[in-house]
Amino acid sequence: MEIAYYPGCSLKQSSALYDIQSRRIFSELGVELKEIEDWNCCGATSAGKVDDFLAVAMPARNIGIAEAAGYREIVIPCSACYSRTLVAQQRLEGDARLKAEINGAFAKKMNGGLKISSILEVLLGRIAAGALEPKLKRKFRRLKPVCYYGCMQTRFPFTVPVPDDVENPQGMETVLGALGVKAIDWSHKTFCCGASAAVNDPETSLNLMGKIMKDALLRGANCFVATCPMCQLNLDAHQDAFCRRSGIEERLPVFFITEVVGAAMGISPEALQVDRHFIDGTTLLKELEGDER
Amino acid sequence: MTGPLLEFRPEQAKPLLQEVMERSGQMLTACYQCRRCAAGCTVADETGFFTPNILIRTVILGDRETALSNPLVWKCVSCYTCGTRCPNDIQTARITETLKKMAKEAHIAPLQPKVAAFHDSFLESGLRWGRVNEMEFMGVYEMKNIIREARARNYEAIVDELKTQAKLGMAMFRLKRMHAGFMTTKGRKEIKALYRKTRKKPGVSPRVNP
């Protein structure tokens, strides 16, 4: 099975490990991720704040490329890219004039009907198809994760079909459940980490992340699991800073969902490049390696 | 906790409300101040409780000055919690996004200049190369900050900012999370040409009707 793949700028740079893991995991699950040709930046949340037209036009070009190449589905692991592309598609569906104007300018035209999927949707589809079960080598009994979705997996600035519960999503919990891992319930799974505020308004962002960390610790978690590269980088790279600010001693590794799935399949943390985290996650995964199925 | 003093400006109320409603696509008049948005606002602690419902009230009263320059417009993290909880489907994050653009057009200095510089630099970088090259983008963003702070002779702020970013940059470099190559998209010319065309239409700013 082949599906179109939009990595986005961050999976090609600071979160390149997420790109490597996604390709590896999906290949094991029988899905080849086909990176679409000559894709461009989706504009992220910045486009919505600076220019409404570009916020639609930039993702539209990528949709056209995927459709022209004959794909029916595209997977977008980055939450910001996923959200912006889904929203752009939805807005174009309801605005024939705008769609014609944009199509007129791009070589690869949109026809409609492309399914835009988050990484969780594709993972859940493979699990439902029974592709995961035969690949599992380990069962992590001592992993106590809290699933962190952030904002952009379930909350959108426009009305779009949301694939999970808005306030209490369960997609990641279901994936972990299929690995035999019970995720801890908590109240900050869709609380915002501040996203770009970590760069342009650190005071705000560090306060928000401190609240997330406090709740995770209160519930007895020993790691975070995330799907968004921005959330992962924020909670990981700024953890020392926001913990110091909030008087927290503990540190928790922030795993991508692909790292936990990969480790359960028996892929080593080194091959998954978990050693590129700011907060060490390799030790915890190594400790758990003894947990056999 | 007391709310800010808002001014009622009857002569401004109608045009301001109309412009914000049209550009944001939000039915502000549907707000009945139930404050579910306020209870859910992620940054309420950071804005001195200038919550979404207060912003909506500000616009309705015609207090243009406060509407274009208040902590919520510049601290809003676009988490969309207020909008998903609003019983009347008002997405206030799209109102803050609209007010940011209106403030820029009116040449009002942003309350959080770094926030404005960040989003401008990000989009410029994405448009210039077709993809955002993190290092180039951060360089442009920091240059904007340095120029602004240097004009205000605020040299200490420049040093602090560079120290923080350099520390993060070194850690990222050590973890191989810094990308050395430079990415471009050939098709960026298509986007630029389209963008130029939409901007040249007489009397129409490049905006999309919601």
Automatic annotation (TrEMBL), chain A:
Kindly give the Pfam families that the UniProt entry links to this protein: CCG
Q: Which UniProt keywords apply?
A: Oxidoreductase
Look up keyword Oxidoreductase and say if it applies: yes
Cleaved signal peptide residues = none
> At the top level of its lineage, which domain of life is listed?
Bacteria
Q: Does the keyword Lyase apply?
A: no
List the InterPro entries: Cys_rich_dom, HdrB/HdrD_reductase
User: A Gene Ontology molecular-function term?
Assistant: oxidoreductase activity
Segments forming domain Cysteine-rich = 3-82, 148-236
- Which PANTHER family does the UniProt record give? COB--COM HETERODISULFIDE REDUCTASE SUBUNIT B 1
Q: What is this protein called?
A: Cysteine-rich domain-containing protein
Question: What is the protein's species of origin?
Answer: Desulfococcus multivorans DSM 2059
From TrEMBL, chain B:
Domain 4Fe-4S ferredoxin-type, by residue range, is 28-90
Q: Which InterPro entries match?
A: 4Fe4S_Fe-S-bd, 4Fe4S_Fe_S_CS, HdrC_iron-sulfur_subunit, Helical_ferredxn
Q: Which GO terms describe its molecular function?
A: iron-sulfur cluster binding; metal ion binding
Name under which the protein is recorded: 4Fe-4S ferredoxin, iron-sulpur binding domain-containing protein
Q: Does the keyword Acyltransferase apply?
A: no
Keywords (A to Z) from UniProt: Iron, Iron-sulfur, Metal-binding
Q: Which Gene3D superfamilies match?
A: Alpha-helical ferredoxin
On whether Iron is a keyword of this UniProt record, the answer is yes
Q: Which species expresses this protein natively?
A: Desulfococcus multivorans DSM 2059
| One GO cellular component term | plasma membrane
This protein's source sits in the domain of life called Bacteria
